[in-house]
Structure formats: C-alpha cells, structure tokens
TrEMBL record:
This is Glucosylceramidase. Belongs to the glycosyl hydrolase 30 family. Residues 73-152 form the Glycosyl hydrolase family 30 TIM-barrel domain. Its EC number is 3.2.1.45. The keyword Zinc-finger does not apply. GO terms for cellular component: membrane. The keyword Transmembrane does not apply. It is an enzyme of class 3 (hydrolase).
Amino acid sequence: MLICAKAEQCVARKYDQESIVCVCNATYCDLIEPTTVDQLAGNVARHYISTKEVDIANATYFQVNKNVTYQQILGFGGAMTDSAAIHINSLSEEAQQLLLSAYFSPEGLEYSFVRVPMGGSDFSTHYYAYDDVVNDSTLRYFNLTEEDYLLK
C-alpha cells in the first residue's frame, strides 16, 4: 500500500499556462510531515509528490519488505553545485535558513549528505579546474578558485 500525500500548503507562483512552483521565501517554505519506519506498518511507504494534482491512479507503487535488505543506506542527499550555492547565497538570511531547513531538518527532506563537485561542473558559470598544467604530478600549480572560497 502506498500513501500518496502532498506537502503543507504550497505558496504557488504560476508560470506559463500550466506550470507552477512552490515559493520558498523569508517567511515560509512548505514542509513535509515527518514519518519514521516504525509508523509504517507492513508494506506501507509514504511517497510525496510535487505536482499540481495528486493522481492516485497513476502513482508509482513500491513494495517494501523491511526483512529483505540488499545494502545499507547511509543517508540521502543531493549535489551542491556552484549554481545551487550562487542561488542560495542570493537569498536573504531568513530565506536561506528556511530553504536549508526544508532540505536538512526533520520537518524537511532530512538530507544527510551533500555531494560537492571538485572544480567546475556543468552548472558552473565558467569552466575551471584545480590544475590545468599538463604532467604536473607534483601539483605545483594546484590552486583553489574564488568559487571554492565563496561557495564550497
């Protein structure tokens, strides 16, 4: 059985004809209701959907068996790219706190890991690396960039 649920009330901002985003600002970010494994009896999972309409008929279903494990889950998270950090830094301090709480707090997604790309990535404002000198095996020309000091 799958419990399909929406997060708290979304403060929607409309784009185009059908597209919306939930606004997170200095005074509000929508959060999800925390759930522990003990609260889910039998083969029940809670699946949160980010969509305009909750369509149970077309929902993705999971079958959970807590007695069969294939690997240990150490945590969940996402990437902190230069682009993500630039956008977070552009928010007010209050909005930053609410956004980070939405990702890392027990009332949010409960992220426990962040992957930080080494050097530039496809979400950087320009291409860069830590050592662009060919055959520099001693790393004599290794250097950090402004992004490393400000964003990582």
